[in-house]
Amino acid sequence: MFSSTPLQVCFVSRSISKTLEMEGYVMTESGNIRPIVTPEKKSPTKRTNFVGISPQRELTNIRTPTDRPFRVSVEGNIGAGKSTLIKYFSHLPGIETYPEPINWWRNLDGHNLLELSYLDRDKWLNTFQMYVQLTRLKVQTTVPQSTTTVQMFERSLQNNRYCFVEQAFKSGALHGADYTIIDEWYKWAKNNCDIDLDLIVYLKSTPEVVYERMKARKRPEESSVPLEYLKELHDSHEQWLMTDDISFNSIPVLVLDANKTLEEIMEQYKINESKILGNEKKRRSVVEKSEKERVKRVLNL
């Protein structure tokens, strides 16, 4: 009588397992035989966020939700009063406000990217802009509460792409390759995530006015920002929002005079509250054609 060696037992066991697998069954460790169960593939939900997903991976079945709240972004130069407007509306019911994620930029695992980008633009600007784009996308794809009727953002992903990135590229601070990568990321996000806006509130101000405000508020990172940089940002905002160039912007724009005093600006908020909150969607006043033509002449477009 022959006894089986461990090698022979292993070979027979593998043969049986392979035969069972071909027939749609599997043998468990306890020796039981059960059918093979294939997990169902799950399609991405309509609120899929891009974070953690490679831009090279194709996503399907992502649909823009039709039941989302009215989305408004508050735009303007540094020191134009964006956070003031955000605070003004934050106390109203049904309004979710999203301040700029400055604390994220100031502390990325101990690194102050905001400060680094101001101190050495040539070295750190691309790194900073990539992270800004990521954080803005996180904010702008935040799932609102069920009772939210308006989502209000302090600046937007669109702002980063068509204002700050454009300014950096034109000034030579951003290499063409870096510019293209950021643009590819933006286009991927736009095509695969719901980042649409319904209204932009543009706090229009002169560079000289916001420069004085910036110096007065004394943010440490802004101490080295020159007036010339604010002038360049102003021109970028004007081209983005005031020229009717749909390659830059096709979102309705409500322009408010941000050169006024705080009391006068607050009065503008009250007067335009219904428009800002999306209650006059069909009757929103847009930028006058004459003003747009004037801006084009100033920018030599």
UniProtKB/TrEMBL annotation:
Under the cellular component aspect of Gene Ontology, which terms does the record hold?
mitochondrion
Q: GO MF terms on file? A: deoxynucleoside kinase activity
Q: Which InterPro entries match?
A: Deoxyribonucleoside_kinase, DNK_dom, P-loop_NTPase
Q: What protein does this entry describe?
A: Deoxynucleoside kinase domain-containing protein
Pfam (any one): dNK
Q: Which domain of life is it from?
A: Eukaryota
Domain spans labelled Deoxynucleoside kinase: 72-268
Q: Lineage of the native species?
A: Eukaryota, Metazoa, Ecdysozoa, Arthropoda, Hexapoda
